[in-house]
Design brief:
alpha+beta, Adenine-specific Methyltransferase, domain 2, 4-stranded mixed beta sheet, single chain, globular, 7 helices, Rossmann fold
């Protein structure tokens, strides 16, 4: 019902009205399902489906300038719901170190962190209010190495920077080219170099 309301009311002014909600004190009292409907709407109506918040934790993605938005495919939603319900799947929101602490020999772990910036002034690492820093990249490397030492198969993707190459120099590093459409610097759009790093051939 809430998603239908968002679909019906959608326009640029409405988008920014809904985006503004997390700045208000009353937002803390809103039911979780209302917050969930808001996030789905902002994700579908925002620029390129990007999720991003500022230093205060407020959602700050601009409008995607869409005339209409389709927020839910009920049949597909039910299929996903049933799949998650009937599989051994756990979704968490915790630090990556804690997320993989129970990984054992023979398991596979893939890390897709906020990427190391080519230029600190231009690259985007702030998906959340706390940036993913170089110190976090080092923590991630240490976690990667610890898992590798345990016999876990580990894969990680990142930008092809000197810093990342230096950290993971003892592992397998493969350069790949990826399309990037979101960047404040036009030179950072289009084909960019990334690396896929593994502890196995």
């Amino acid at each position: 019902r809430l998603l239908e309301i968002h679909e019906t009311n959608h326009n640029d002014d409405y988008y920014y009205e809904i985006r503004q909600m997390d700045r208000e004190d009353s937002y803390k009292k809103i039911a979780l399902y209302e917050k969930a409907a808001r996030v789905i709407y902002l994700n579908k109506a925002g620029f390129n489906g990007l999720y991003r918040v500022n230093k205060k934790g407020y959602f700050n993605v601009p409008s995607g300038k869409k005339e209409k938005v389709k927020l839910i495919d009920l049949d597909n939603f039910n299929k996903i719901h049933n799949y998650l319900l009937n599989q051994d799947i756990q979704i968490t929101n915790i630090d990556f170190v804690d997320a993989v602490k129970n990984a054992k020999k023979g398991d596979f772990v893939y890390f897709d962190p906020p990427y190391d910036p080519w230029d600190k002034k231009e690259s985007f690492t702030a998906y959340a209010k706390d940036d993913f820093t170089r110190e976090d990249q080092i923590r991630l490397f240490e976690t990667f190495k610890c898992l590798a030492d345990k016999g876990v198969y580990v894969m990680l993707s990142n930008h092809n920077t000197d810093f990342i190459n230096s950290l993971y120099k003892d592992f397998n590093i493969y350069i790949v080219h990826a399309n990037r459409m979101i960047n404040s610097n036009p030179n950072g759009r289009g084909k960019v170099e990334e690396v896929i790093i593994t502890n196995y051939e």
